[in-house]
Amino acid sequence: MDAKKIAEIEVDVLLEAIRLRYDYDFRNYARASLKRRVQSLLSKENLEMPYQLIPRILYDQNIFDKFLSEMSVTVTELFRDPPFFKSIQEIIFPVLATYPYFKIWHAGCATGEEVYSLAILLKEAGLLNRAKIYATDYSKRSLNTAKEGIYDASNMKINSEAYLKAGGKNQLEDYYTQQYDAFKFNDELKKNITFAYHNLVKDGVFGEMNMVVCRNVLIYFDKNLQNHAFSLFDSSMLRWVFYALAAKKPLIFRC
Ligand SMILES: C[S@@+](CC[C@H](N)C(=O)[O-])C[C@H]1O[C@@H](n2cnc3c(N)ncnc32)[C@H](O)[C@@H]1O
């Protein structure tokens, strides 16, 4: 057997060790990016082969936390992909407006920028008070940032431009207070948002939703895990709207 195949076996055994020890199952993550992340952790730990990580991870929770950070690519931004937010306002908001209240699930919300972006647009459409937003991720560190709603202010110009491109009607400054190099979203935006831990691999449905937003998450999953996530979204949906996005393209819209 060549060395490449043996390295694959090492990765399999590593993932199995993580599953048994910590109950996190990465076996159905997209293999190429998973191997890049294992490689990145190996070089940070000055190790060479995946098997060397196994005892470290088994006996040291800190190393596992580092692995988890590698696996949680939490890159996100306010009004990321403005046309997405524009199309939500044009296509989905009129449907939401016909309901006295509604529930939205942001699956894989990372540090929360996407969620606050939607909350701002719902507020401008007069819909925020009718919304209950569940924003979930399996990265507890990201969820803590999301709950605080405090972000680095160095990109404010880019954020403001994205807000306007997304169809924002006011000024982004109306929704936050700035202190030195950080800004904090107004508490009013937060009051209908619940940030919570949820792992798309192993946790079930937790409520009936009117809308599901899941962007830039499924790209890290293989086909089986993507289908599993879709079946979760499907069974959490009331029958009338389903809007889930992977990468930038709308996948399903059902009324
Ligand atoms: C690139 S971010 C996307 C953030 C945001 N949705 C966006 O599009 O800007 C991917 C997020 O998916 C989360 N994620 C990955 N696997 C997950 C899982 N099994 N369950 C829940 N969240 C997961 C990561 O922790 C990360 O925060």
Descriptive report:
- This protein is 47% helix and 17% strand.
- The chain contains ten helices and nine strands.
- β4 and β5 (182-185) form a beta hairpin.
- The protein is globular and about 60 Å long.
- The structure holds S-adenosylmethionine.
- S-adenosylmethionine (SAM) binds at residues 72-76, 80, 108-110, 114, 137-139, 142, 199-201, 215-217, 220.
Secondary-structure map with pairings?
Elements lengths: L2 H20 L8 H14 L5 H10 L1 H11 L10 H15 L5 E6 L5 H12 L6 E7 L2 H9 L1 E3 L3 H10 L10 E4 L2 E4 L1 H4 L2 E5 L13 E3 L9 H14 L5 E5 L2 E6 L1
Parallel strand pairs: 1-2, 1-7, 2-6
Antiparallel strand pairs: 3-5, 4-5, 8-9
Helix pairs in contact: 1-3, 2-4, 3-4
The chain binds S-adenosylmethionine.
What is the count of helical runs?
10
Mean pLDDT: 91
Q: In whole angstroms, how far apart are the ends?
A: 53 Å
How large a portion of the residues is in β-strands, by DSSP E? Answer: 15-25%
- The H-and-E topology, N to C, reads as HHHHHEHEHEHEEHEEHEE
Envelope shape: globular
- Rg for CA atoms: 20 Å
Features:
single chain; 255 residues; alpha/beta; four-stranded parallel beta sheet; three-stranded antiparallel beta sheet; 17% strand; globular; binds S-adenosylmethionine
